[in-house]
Each structure stands twice: as structure tokens, then as C-alpha cells.
Amino acid sequence: MDENRVGAADILPADAERALLVGRVQLPAGPAVVTLRDDALIDLSATFATMRELTEDAAPAASVRAASGPVVGLLDEVWANTAPDTRDVRRPWLLSPIDLQVVKASGVTFPVSMLERIIEERARGDAGSADGIRDTILQALGGDLQGLVPGSAQALRVKEVLVEAGLWSQYLEVGIGPDAEIFSKAPVLATVGAGADVGVLAESRWSNPEPEVVLVVASTGTVVGATLGNDVNLRDIEGRSALLLGRAKDNNASAAVGPFIRLFDDGFDLDDVRAETVGLRVTGDDGFTLQASSQMSQISRDPADLVRQAHGAHHAYPDGFVLYLGTMFAPVDDRDEPGHGFTHHVGDVVHISSPRLGTLINRVQHSEQLPPWEFGIGALMANLAARGLLAVPAHEEGSA
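Below the sequence we write its predicted C-alpha cells.
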């Protein structure tokens, strides 16, 4: 993938001049937290050694605006050096904007994705049988499920009809039942950023991008910002059994986040996320192009409710977490064979975009062929300590 053909301005929000954007950049010395001011990336390491420290701040937006630091470089230069094929490791490049946050994801939060999960389950990973199963289920449902509130009395009646018809599914349970599907998508520090390669297993024959809005949540449960994500999915593997979710979802470079976190402030908040439009474009070396867009307003579970289901008395996250909100896309356009729908090819370039969050761009490769994930929590702590950046915040001294 040649990111040089996609300018730095193309990865920014449409209102970038008003957006408070933070991210992470790899410097020769190690990773650094940065903010974008005008066209320059400013190193905030002296104030925030990690993105976790920034998102745990009592007033992240105000603190970032007050922080100062040296210029890492112009965004144009850093973005041009991010493409893995042409990267000069002596110069900065973009990383995933998160570090110590736990990576969580919501599943089956849009009616169309719920339908496709049921199809995967019934097809047992066979893409060729998807169309017939889709028609059967839609007829049984009696039409569109848009507007059906999960856990409501109406949803319970739909469940009873489907159980009687022998069509009830575990995916319908989390799609319209009271409890959301919340799972761990990737280990801490394992996500990749904009411009990086994303991975699918070589054994998979039915894989999709899953474009999603990603919320950034502090340990208190407060949503402090948002970004974009690709929850890369192997439909054939998950379709064989839902117990294979980990194998279908958590592989080398299978979780992308970026390009930047847009912090909530007076000009951008959770209501703006609820109103966002998300676009998807996939272009392949074979000339194939897939393009679609959808509205966050179509989500069946409110983002705040998903955060509450992930965090609370039942589970705390001392370093905060990010939460993929679920995909509204399930590409079904035939690519290789009639009736077999869409699957990724090596070399596909995936653009996930929204007006207020920018564009996340990644190229698809086999996970087994990508550089292994090696920079974990221990490596980060050692690096920060060597750079004199590892200090225990006063409010955490002496805590267990």
C-alpha cells in the first residue's frame, strides 16, 4: 500500500481545525504521545508518558491544550513515513493511538450484522449457502428488525415466534435480548494504527473488514473520546462455532485503531458519535471495489448502554478501555464465485472513514506473514524507564 498517494489531510476529520486530536508516534527512542496543532505533531511525553495517563486525566481536553513539548515533525512527513514497505526507522511514524487500555468489542449491535452472524452459524462457515439461508430467515422474521429495542416486550415476542419456528440463535439472543455481547478483542498494546497492515489467517476463506466507531473510556467509566476501528473477522471460522470467536477475532494485527483519538470537548461529544456516518471502501489488486456507508443512528443498543454493560461493579478497568461499538456492515457482494459473497484478498486496501473522526487506512495481509507482536507491557515500561519518563502519579503511590 502506498500511503503517499493518500495525503495526510485525507486521514483527518473534515473539521480538523476544530478537532482536538491525540495519538501516538514511534520515535527512534520509543513511543510518544502526541497532539496535532496546525500541521505539526507535538510530543507530550513530558506531561503524558502514555495515552493511558492522558485519558485518565481529570480534564483531558483542557490538560492537552495546556501541555507543551517539542515538534516531532509535520504530519505530512510522519504519515509519509508510516507505510511499512518504505518506512525509515530512523524517523517518526504513526502508531495505534492507544496503549495500556484494554481492548473490548461489542458484537451484534446492528440488525444487519445480527442477520449475518445467524447466517454464519447456520452455514457452518460455507459462504456458498449464505444467500438461501438469508432469504429463509428474513421470511421468518417477517421483515425489517430496525427499531426493535433489545430486551423489550416486543423483542421477547419476536424471540417466542423464532423459537417456535426452530430459528432461534445465540446471535439473536445477544442481538435482541437484554444482555449485549461484550468480548476482548485483542491484548493490551497489540492493536495496529493507520497505515499499518492488518492480518487475516491464511487458512480462512471467508473474511471481512468490520468498520466500527471505537469509544475511549477512562477507568471511571467516563467516555473521553472516540476513534475508528477495524475489528477484522474470519466469518468461516466463527461460523463453525461461536466458541472459536477468539481464533476468528484475535490474531496478529487483526485489530486496527486510529488514526487519532478525538477527545470530547465543547465541540464534540457522545451525541456527535451517535449521529456519525461511517463509510467503507475496499480496493483490491484484482480491480475489485466495494463501497458502502451507514449511520450510527441505526445501532440497536445506545453507546452509553454498551459502556455500562462493559464497565461497572461487575468489572473495573484501572487503565481504562476502548470499546468497539459493533459493525453496521456485512459485505455480501460476490467477488470470486456467484453466491459466495465477499472475502478479503491479500493486498486489499481498506478505508474506514467518518466526517468527525477521519479515515483509518490499512492493507490486508496474512497474519502469519506479518512481523510478530513483540512490544508488550514489559517492553513499554522498560523503554519509558530508560527514557526517564516512568514516574508513579502521586495519587497512585503506595497502592496495591
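The chain has a mean pLDDT of 88.
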